[in-house]
Amino acid sequence: MLGTGPLVLALVRYAGSPACDAALRSYRAHLQPELPRLGAHLVAVSPQASQRLAAVKHREELGYLVASDPRHVLIDALNIGFGHPGADVVLGTGRSVLPFASVVVVDRAGVVRFAEVRAGWSGPIPPGRVIDTVRCLTNPSTY
């Protein structure tokens, strides 16, 4: 994906979490329409098993990729996870690591250009700064 444009990673805990489902809907409404016009890709990432994520992708009619990170490799690499006893049951992976609410923008070279990480899930990360960052990466002459 990086070969064709910047990547916007939206990390969510698990399908069925009201806060995460609301974030996925917000990203569908605000990021999904704009990012392809800018040549960028939106991917939601969760440590939940992929078969459980498929249900939310279809239920919420998400037109972007929803990927599973069951071994929390990305979460660990970005140092944005925390242990939560009992999460292994809802994740279906035998692991109990959840991500903080996070959005990360990666440029075509694989360099993180923007990251917002929140300890609480009070609401989705506002899309404006994400879109501005992507605009700057795809059309630097406008900034």
UniProtKB/TrEMBL annotation:
<protein>
    <submittedName>
        <fullName>AhpC/TSA family protein</fullName>
    </submittedName>
</protein>
<dbReference type="InterPro" id="IPR000866">
    <property type="entry name" value="AhpC/TSA"/>
</dbReference>
<dbReference type="Pfam" id="PF00578">
    <property type="entry name" value="AhpC-TSA"/>
</dbReference>
<dbReference type="GO" id="GO:0016491">
    <property type="term" value="F:oxidoreductase activity"/>
</dbReference>
<feature type="domain" description="Alkyl hydroperoxide reductase subunit C/ Thiol specific antioxidant">
    <location>
        <begin position="6"/>
        <end position="114"/>
    </location>
</feature>
<dbReference type="GO" id="GO:0016209">
    <property type="term" value="F:antioxidant activity"/>
</dbReference>
<dbReference type="InterPro" id="IPR036249">
    <property type="entry name" value="Thioredoxin-like_sf"/>
</dbReference>
